[in-house]
Amino acid sequence: MAAVIALSGCGGSSAGSSPSADNPYGLIEPGTIRVASLGDSKPYTFTDSSGNFTGFDVELFKDVAHRAGVDNVVFTGQDFSGLLAAVANGQFDVGVAAIGITDKRKETVDFSEGYLAGYLTVITTKTSGIKDVDGLNGKRLGVVQGTLQEAYAVKNFTSSQLVRFPDNNTAISAVNSGAVDAHFLDYEAAKSYQDQFGLVSAADIPSFDAPAGFAIAKNKPEFKEALNKGLAEAMEDGTWKKLYQKWFPGSPMPEQYLPKAEQTSSP
Ligand SMILES: NC(=O)CC[C@H](NC[C@@]1(O)OC[C@@H](O)[C@@H](O)[C@@H]1O)C(=O)O
User: Fold this and answer.
1) Of 67, 68, 92, which is closest to residue 82 (Cα–Cα)?
2) In Å, how far are 135, 216, 224 from 112, measured between CA atoms?
3) Which of 166, 170, 191, 222 is the most interior residue, by most CB within 10 Å?
């Protein structure tokens, strides 16, 4: 006898609830923001030793949510490949995980304004002999399923054997065990794994055309507007800069997210 699972009536469209007076952002549960995130993309989004989610993206989102009037923010770890679908089908109100904004992804979800533009990085062991992207020819390259790295590698690293992983931790274990020769992930996460395991960077590929944004279900204009307003305030009052310096010390700082008075390049 198949168990009949009664879904708690949350009304509204399949992607969470429709906005109403007591639920202006159309959240699944009024007053709570449910966030789909990742546990192993340090320092963007990761779980610390007590299992709490933290990192640049996490702290920036919590700041923005506070500015939007919501302080009850619940993070859940996901595989990256299922994250956008889970937001699109209303399981979560938002995806926060250094998710690059692309037109392809906009077919599934909507995005806030961008809040972080950086690089995609190939990391490898000191003994692999891989010193640049040409060194990837004939080699086994790890990618996390569903990432921009996967899409880029399929298009550009056609002489490599791509090996798909559910997350960075399993991919890095494969690099360390020699099951793959290199892994392709985000710059700051790469730096974190390099420090942890003595790995080295072989290539940094700019991804400025796909800055990270908060992913939300389509047709949630009130929620999107509140997130964008909070992001703009956090950038203008220097909160963004403070978090960037905390989580990415020493990294070059993109100017476009600094207070207007500190932006030197012409508009
Ligand atoms: N957390 C992940 O594994 C996401 C991997 C990958 N992040 C790319 C990105 O959003 O990372 C932060 C910034 O460097 C962006 O420029 C970049 O596109 C993606 O969106 O597919």
Assistant:
1) 92
2) 37, 8, 6
3) 191
Residue 101 Cβ inside 6 Å of ligand 1? The answer reads no
Q: What's the pLDDT band for 16 if we cut at 50, 70, 90?
A: low
The b/e string for 92-131 (b: 16+ C-beta within 10 A; e otherwise) is: bbbbbbbbbbeeebeeebbbbbbbbbbbbbbbbbeebebe
Helix, strand or coil for residue 137? coil
Q: Round to whole Å and give the CA distance between 68 and 230.
A: 6
- Overall residue count recorded for the chain in this entry: 267
CA distance 188 to 192: 6
List pLDDT tens digits, range 88-130. Answer: 999 999 999 999 999 999 999 999 999 999 999 999 999 999 9
Question: In b/e form, how buried is each residue of 17-37, taking b as 16+ CB within 10 angstroms?
Answer: bebeeebebbbbeeeebbbbb
- Whole-number Å distance between alpha carbons of 87 and 22: 21
Among 121, 148, 152, the mutation site with the greatest number of ligand 1 atoms within 8 A of its Cβ is 148
Cα 10 to ligand 1 centroid, rounded to whole Å: 32
- Tell me the per-residue pLDDT of 35-84, one tens digit each, with 9 for 90 and over: 999 988 999 999 999 999 999 999 999 999 999 999 999 999 999 999 99
| DSSP helix/strand/coil, 55 | coil
Q: Say yes or no: CB of residue 55 within 6 Å of ligand 1.
A: no
